[in-house]
Amino acid sequence: MYKIKQRPEDFIVNEIFSPKLKKQGDYVYFRLKKTNYNTIDAIKKIANAIKLPFKRFGFAGAKDKNAVTSQVVSVKTNDEAKITMLRELKLKDIEIEILGKSDQPVSLGDHEGNEFIVTIRNLKEIPKKINTKFINYFGPQRFGLKNALIGKAIIKKSFQKAVKLIDRPECNEHIKFHPNDFTGAIRKLPNKLISLFVHAYQSDIWNRVADKVGIEEFSIPGFGAEYRDEKVKQLINKELKKDSITSRDFIIRQIPNIHTEGRTRKKWVKAEDFKILEEEKDELHIGKKKLKIKFRLPKGSYATVFIKSIFASS
Predict the structure, then answer these.
(1) Is 64 assigned a catalytic role?
(2) CA dist 80 → 74, 86, 87, 300 (Å)
(3) pLDDT, tens digit (0-9, with 9 covering 90-100), for 146-194
(4) What is the pLDDT of residues 197-252, one digit of tens each?
(5) What is the Cα–Cα distance from 306 to 308, expressed in whole angstroms?
(6) pLDDT for 313
(7) Residue 283 and residue 41: Cα distance in Å, rounded?
(8) Are residues 65 and 77 in the same domain?
(9) Is residue 9 part of a domain?
């Protein structure tokens, strides 16, 4: 069985994003390079260090934890002392490069895509032919261990169950002083994180039906989702029904300002500018080989899914 992410440098992700910047603006843009951090935890570390709230930061997409990644982040501040703190900040496995300023924050989906350099290990043989087109499944990073389960609980308004699954200090502390206020506990979390849980469930439903339909793209289930194909609509509703959920359940009035809309996603995607960089003996697995590859994917597509497709078809 192939192995990836055995070392952080085995999985390198560089965000493709060229924002238009200027000398003045309410938002400072910086490039964040991190190792063994997920995006939210890395930004929280930075926010705590320069004493600014997490909600002032914006990013285009969450990047892998077990990797070396680079991405653009914004923070809302005109305080030159804070900007100096950010520029001079020294944190283990986190590097910051100030890029400039803008009138707008970095928002989810602002980037164009990501470039990957991946080392695949523990191979008996190197695949002779690699097909760069694959089904655009959401990858395991989207789901974590419990993200989809938490999202499902929130959508079903089972807030007590959601808090138990989340099991974070800020939620548990709130319940200690406000027993039974489970929505209040969830609202202690950043809206980006709550939305991530809901999106994980929506993504799980999309994955369940992706290989059962023949059309090029179809909607992720959510509030206001429209399905042009009747078969897709039936399959989505069948999967939602298994979880006792309808499209109206994606309206969550108890937790405002989270995003539950359905949007269209392409079923197929292609890894562009694919290159084999190295084919060598694997120094971590005696008698096995390793393959180092480089490629680009559009935003929202997963390198882990592409790599899995390589060996599913080889």
Answers:
(1) yes
(2) 15, 10, 10, 35
(3) 999 999 999 999 999 999 999 999 999 999 999 999 999 999 998 888 9
(4) 999 999 999 999 998 998 999 999 998 899 999 999 999 999 999 999 999 999 99
(5) 5
(6) 61
(7) 32
(8) yes
(9) no
Number of domains making up the chain: 3
| Amino acid 259: pLDDT | 79
Claim to verify: residue 161 and residue 251 sit in the same structural domain? yes
Pair (291, 231) in one structural domain: no
Q: b/e per residue, 161-176, with b = 16+ CB within 10 A?
A: bbbebbeeeebeebbe
* Whether 156 and 66 share a structural domain: no
Predicted TM-score (pTM) of the model is 0.88
Position 44 in a domain: yes
Q: 86: domain range?
A: 18-102
Q: Read off the CATH number of the domain in which 95 is found.
A: 3.30.70.3160
Kindly name the residue from 64, 110, 204, 282 that is annotated as catalytic.
64
Is the residue at 227 inside a domain?
A: yes
Mark whether 46 and 66 lie in a shared domain. yes
Q: CA-CA distance, 22 to 36, in Å (whole number)?
A: 31
Mind listing the pLDDT tens digit for each residue in 87-103?
A: 999 999 999 999 999 99
Do 118 and 214 lie in a common domain?
no
Within this chain, do residues 168 and 216 fall inside the same structural domain, yes or no?
A: yes
What confidence tens digit (pLDDT) does each residue in 238-288 have?
999 999 999 999 999 999 888 788 889 999 999 999 999 999 999 999 999
Pick from 228, 251, 266: which residue ends a domain?
Answer: 266
